[in-house]
Amino acid sequence: MSDIYDKVIELAKRRGFVWPSAEVYGAVAGFIDYGPLGAMMKRRIESIWRHYYVIREGYYEIECPTVGTESIYVASGHVKGFADKMCQCPHCNEYFRADHLAEACGIHNAGILSKEDLAKAVAPTRCPACDEVFGDVEVFDFNLMFQTTIGPGSQRRGYLRPETAQGMFTDFSRLSRFYRMKLPFGAVQIGKSYRNEISPRQGMIRLREFTQAEAEIFVNPSEKNHPNFSRYADYKVELWAIEQEQKDLPAVEKTMRQAVDEGIIANEYIAYYLALTHELLVTIGIDPARMRFRQHLPDERAHYAVDCWDAEVFSDRFGWVETVGIADRTDYDLRAHSKESGESMTVFVPFAEARKEKRMRIVADMGTLGPKYRGKAKKIADALAEAAPGPDGADVVVDGETYHIPGDLYTVREEEVEVRGVEVRPHVIEPSYGIDRMIYGVLEHAYDEEMVDGEERRVMHLAPCVAPVQVAVFPLVNKDGLDATAREIALDLQDEGILADYDDNGAIGRRYRRQDEIGTPFALTVDYETKEKGTVTLRDRDSMKQVRIPVADVHATLRSLVSGRTRFEDLKEA
RNA sequence: GCGAUAGUAGUCUAGUGGUAGGACAGUGGCUUCCCAAGCCACUAACUCGGGUUCGAAUCCCGGCUAUCGCACCA
């Protein structure tokens, strides 16, 4: 003992936020259970996320299976790309990435070598661990996806999804009809994803089963301006862009308008979700001073991505933790699924006004062309339609051979056609949130120890909107009917949908402290004045101050406090 | 996964081969009554599996988990 991590995890375990999963049988690294308070807090964070993405942005939530067939992940590239080629030293049994070993001895692009070639490349090198020459080693694939089989007889291979995103892509055509073919549109998913990490060692930060909240926003590639950009145009965020990162400079503060105009952020969509993410993280209780937006360096971002930013949250134990990724993935995913599935995955975008376009149409004289070229005739005719004929005929290339087609074998017509629009393959803007990491960040940033009258007070400064228990209700003493009144108030609050925890055990000070430790933001106490004047005391967790409010106002006041519309400091004494 | 270290009530900890003790927390009661007060009572643990031994929390081996280092981290 101990840094904040130890203290936060100790409290989280003891009070029922997060537990090692299935501890009775021996926990397995990378799996956690959310206890009663943790699960409640997680739901609250998820519903705040929904408020932003589903209600405010209008991107409906869908829910897809966590088991997917092989073709999904062949298309997405996870079957190939998510597999590391590994080998084991025959002398010391240490595991290594085979491509890393090969690159260390001067082979470039070792990542594209076959298993056999990698084994050859590694054989003469020395093991970094035991310094023996490797000799004969077997290079094998280690895929980070959990594999399973679907149905009996294990004919059909399935994978647990490594991200929720693919569901939005495979449902693209139906989504596009749902949104009546109007770009932009988006869909979101909150759910479990799975990655069989080789050795997850960072508690809640690297899990084998984790919760993601992802939005896939499909936009017209030529219109990357967000329709509601004005909402965040003046929103200021500290940006640690490529330039600052490479030169080791501090982050710069910019409005989103500036950042887009200066070309720091690729487009309004990315900037919009970056600002929205900032607002969301602050709302759930991430300390703005311990948060930054870091731009991916060109060599670290996926080859197809135009721009990518991570929201990173600072942890006392882990340093900067990548918590949210916001990327412009272009049309990569839809193109990949279109190719694998044969679906077009495009959206017809009509022009404001249908355009009349003049087109040259080249029509082959099949009566002559057919007998002359026989089997090739169809292909030649198709090529002709695309060709640019000269005065003495047209040259077309079919199957690698050039054919000269004299002018009398086709006619050129000029036609006027009406073009109403184009088929567009949308680009994808993807904000992707790691819910578990957000929860850890919230817990760590909320944790505090302070001295009160020479005694340590442990308190979780959870935002009222994410605190699992929203209000505690106490009788000052357990007699003279105060307890019955307090019980009634608690019941009323519960009827109103407010999570109120009634407690009459022991001394009142102890009850306050118990609630402080789980981050309950407010406590109501029924005392002798309640009977006489119809008021109760409302105590604020952070300041430990109290105001008296009328019993009749309890619901409305708490609702307003919990939603953040009112601050405790602004309450008036009854 | 490799190596080192560790694992005793919910938490912290005492216990070097002879049937586990404390503190805090928790529960019930008394009392006091607005910030972990006091008194009484109670609940509750040797990480798991093998081995050595008449006897193992204690010694040995292995698993699991945690911490640190190495490796891994779309």
How does the major sheet shape up? Answer: 9 strands, mixed
Radius of gyration: 31 Å
With helices defined by DSSP (H or I, 4 residues minimum), what is the helix count? 19
Distance between termini?
46 Å
Report the β-strand fraction as a percent range: 25-35%
User: Low-confidence segments, ≥5 residues, pLDDT <50?
Assistant: none
Helix content range of the residues, please?
25-40%
Which overall shape is indicated by the principal axes computed on the Cα atoms?
globular
What class would the helix/strand composition place it in? alpha+beta
Number of strands: 28
* Residue-averaged pLDDT: 87
Q: Give the strand order of the largest sheet, numbering strands 1, 2, ... along the chain.
A: 3-10-11-21-16-15-14-12-13
Overview of this structure, please?
- With 574 residues, this protein is α+β, with helices and mostly antiparallel strands.
- The protein is built from 19 helices and 28 strands.
- The mean pLDDT is 87.
- The structure holds one RNA strand of 74 nucleotides.
